[in-house]
Amino acid sequence: MPSGPSVDEHVVGCPQCAELFRNDAVLGRNLAGVARPLTEPSDQFARVEAALQKERGLRAFLRSRSTRMRWLLSLSLPALLLLRELGRKRVPWRSLGSWRLLAGVALVALLALVLRAALRPLPIERRAARLRSVLAVGAWCLPFLIGVVPDAQASGQEWTPAFALRCGACFVYGSALALPSFVLLWALDRGDPVPFRVWALGAGVVALVANLILILHCPVTNRVHLVAGHLTIGLSWFAAVCAREWWLRRV
C-alpha cells in the first residue's frame, strides 16, 4: 500500500482516495484483490505476426501504397484499355455523335469517383456510407443512358439468331476486357477479407469500363442490342457478387 507524506497530503484533498484509505484501507485492499492480473496477449501478438508474414508479394506491395497512388493505379488499366480501343478505330469519332460522347464523359467521371470510393477506408459517418451506396447504384444503372440517347435507333431485327449472337459477343467482349480492372481493384484493397461494399463497387467498375470500351468497339446503335449486349453487364456482375455474398453467409 502506498504511504508517505505526499500520499497523506493527497488523501486529505481527495475524497475518493480518502474513501479508499479509510478504516486501514479496507476498501482499497478489497478492490486490489478483485483486480485481474496483467497477462501477455500472446494470442493477439501471434495473430498479428501471422498476418504480417502473409504480406508478401505483389499484392502486398500494391496494398501498401498510399490511397492516392492506389487510385491512380486503378485508373491506369481502364485508361490503357480505352487507348487500345481508340487505336483500333473500329468506331470513327464522327459516327459516335455528341450524345454518346457526353454519355462517355459522364461514365469516365463516375468511374473515377467509384474507384476512389472503393479504395478509401470505410466511412464512419452514415451520410458518407450512403453516398457510396448511391455511387454503386449509379455505376450499375447510369450506362442505361447510352440506350436512351437520341441517336439510338429501333429495329425490327431484334430476335434473329444473328442479332442474339452479336449481343452475346459484345457481352463477353466487354466483360472479358473489364475483368482485369475488377481483379486490380481486389489486389489494391486493404481489407482482409475484402468487404462486400468493395465487391459491389467492383461490379460497378466492370459496368462502366465495359460500356466505355463497347462505345469505342461496337458500331451498333440499336436500343435492344445496347440493352441486351452492353447494359446488362453491370447488373449481371452485381447479381454474381450478391450471389457470392449470400452463399458465403449461408456457409
Task: Describe the protein.
The chain has helices spanning 5-13, 15-34, 42-54, 58-63, 67-88, 93-96, 98-119, 126-141, 145-148, 161-188, 196-217, 223-250. Helices cover 77% and strands 0% of the residues. Helix 5 runs parallel beside helix 11 (196-217), helix 8 (126-141) runs parallel beside helix 11 (196-217) and helix 10 (161-188) packs across helix 12 (223-250). The protein has two domains: 5-34, no CATH class; 67-250, no CATH class. The chain is mainly α and 251 residues long.
Give a brief description.
This protein has 251 residues and is mainly alpha-helical. 77% of the residues lie in helices and 0% in strands.
Order of SSEs:
HHHHHHHHHHHH
Helical percentage? over 70%
Question: On the 0-100 scale, what is the average pLDDT?
Answer: 79
Sheet with the most strands, sense and barrel status: none
Instruction: Classify the beta-strand content into a percent band.
Output: under 5%
Gross geometry: elongated
Unreliably modeled segments? none
Question: Which structural class fits the helix and strand makeup?
Answer: mainly alpha
Termini separation comes to 55 Å
Topology summary:
Layout: H1 5-13, H2 15-34, H3 42-54, H4 58-63, H5 67-88, H6 93-96, H7 98-119, H8 126-141, H9 145-148, H10 161-188, H11 196-217, H12 223-250
Helix pairs in contact: 1-2, 5-7, 5-10, 5-11, 7-8, 7-11, 8-11, 10-11, 10-12, 11-12
